[in-house]
NAD(P)(+)--arginine ADP-ribosyltransferase
Amino acid sequence: MKENLDFGNFYQTNNQFELNTSITYPHGQETLNQMLFHPNKLELATTGNDGFVKVWTFVQENPITKRVSHWRCLSGHTHRSYSSSALCYYKLSTSENINLCCSFEHLVAVWIDTINDLNEEFRYEYSRCFAHSDRKNPVEHVIYNCDKILVCHKTLVNLWNCLNGQFIKSFSWHVHAFAKDPRSSFIALFDKSFFHFYSFSDGKCHSRKGSLFRRVTAAAYIPNDKPSSFVPLQHSRLIFYIPQETNGISGSTASSSENKGFVRNRSIGGNIIYVATHHPVTTVSQSSTASTHDIQSISSSSSSKEYEQIPLVSIETATAPLMKIVPNLEQMVTTAKLNCYAPDDGLSSDESASIMLYTMEWSTKEQSFCYFLNRALNSNDEKQLRPWFHYLKLVSHALAKLKTQHRTIYRVITEDVSRQYQEGNKFVWPEFISGTTYVKAFGDEKNSSQDSKRTLFTIECETGKDISRHTFSDEHDDILLIPGRQFEVVSCLDPGDGLRLIQIKEITLT
């Protein structure tokens, strides 16, 4: 920023600005980080690396004293001399006062506007502080709505109750831009790999996996021409801006993707303006050149015939019989579907969502979708397996479209199962098996707690499917093996410290 903070008056008669006040070094020799105007008054708050949040107010002209109109610093506030950055004005439902909220590194301090007289100095009174324990995780954005505040740190987002100062919950989001919808309680947050639409009113979050691969630097909601069936965009459209070059890496202009369903864009002056809209959900194509994998666990003749005759249906229809089996399934299906409007590998949105649903994690492992599915596959009970037929048909059809991977993958379980896998033994895994090609998993397990028992499988697979483009988390390359694959134990080692190493390889079914 340049040395001066300039205030100007706008005259409608000639549509021009005229300089009113120029302040040299508003935060000393330090950088001015952010500025924000008061929602109701002629007041401006600024933050800087000098550790202060400063409140500037407009002083009206007084012909009697011959005082000219100008801007002046009303007050300055600091917190432990930390560098100040993010700003937010908000009003609680229980008060008429406007609060000023400012971040100081990893902390967020709140001052209450106790006096409405603009000329009264020091009217802001310190109220409370929202603190995060990690001093190395600075606050980058502060967002308020419905008596709640989202504090966006560098590597996570914390939700606080502004009425009582209580912490509510945390999200593992890396937010670098956001936009508030003025027509609803929704806010759009741009993560590294996701769009998150969070509703302050009911606490629900709709997440969609992004495919921009570039950093969004600005975003805003604009009125919607037509109502949308997608709740976060029901009243407004979302536009966001991505520079053509980010971090020195030149990004190519994406092609128009109206046929892909969610994001459209237009290149303007070497940069890209993206418009997020919503299009009707695609249905599963009944005709496909890809052959559906057989699920070997469906072994009885009656079940096999019934399974073969089941048609391909949408993910919503496929999971309808499972709503009473898997908790919170409806919400998870909705989230998965919202993340799969423009899937890769030639998959439909329903096919991609069927894979993503398997990879999603519930609050505990025993509540997850994959846990209930694999339990049914392991049971060899036709009654338990039948409600899963439509889903198995859909996910198998999706996996059949993915390229087969001949790779070595790693899988960790938190128990010692070495007695079940003796060298030379051959066995069939009746469930879905997932693993990662991330070889560092070996080192992570070897260096983990010595008190816990765990087993690290090294699996040489021949029929693995790379599902990394269809998973809810894209931290590593994920490989999925369908049920009924046969394996042979190559070696079983005990390096100590509670860790067992088992090497197995996939072999041809006999």
User: Anything to note?
Assistant: Residues 245-272, 277-293, 445-449 have pLDDT under 50 and may be disordered. The helical segments are 301-308, 315-319, 329-338, 349-359, 369-379, 382-385, 389-400, 440-446.
